[in-house]
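[AMINO ACID CHAIN]
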Amino acid sequence: MTSQRTRNRLVQRLRDSGIRSQAVLDVIAQTPRHLFVDEALAHRAYEDTALPIGHGQTISQPLTVARMTEVLLEAGPLARVLEIGTGSGYQTAVLSPLVGTLYSVERIEPLHLKARQRLQQLNYRNVRLKLSDGTWGWPEYGPYDGILAAAAPDAVPDSLLQQLADGGRLIMPVGSQEQKLVLITRQGDNFSRKTLESVRFVPFLPGVQR
């Protein structure tokens, strides 16, 4: 169930669901999602569904990964991108070929270590990983042209807004009971906000879990 034909079927489903970026579709076709889930779930890796990765976390649905990546990149190339919530490393692997340098933080140490090992083995050279509370981002390397978060806070942390470059784009789910995917664009000191669609993500939690 990990053949190129199986991956191509997933890509066709994403195209049928409205993903238009050929660059994003090509990367998803080439990314071995079965290596980012436990071996027992590898046969389901190319279904368009979220899957558990342990520690109460999930690998996001491919359509959600594709949608967030497409929206983040639709205004043009991004040199420096911050990802909040490395998780399994799958979203990281999809973003990596499409951006200059990718900085990714994860608060759960076992997930961070496993993602680091996977991404190194797969030779993703432009990715920097850190075990950290995502609330604070990674200010040392900011500002960022793009920020993508894979967990939902009640409100967008101001610390992330301040790490967004002028003209930069931030995409993340927001809300507790009802989550919405939100795109924020910075123009100087102004932040324009656009609500895109309903989504379901794990909550955005503080603190490092070892």
The chain has a mean pLDDT of 95. Residues 79 and 100 are 4 Å apart (CA to CA).
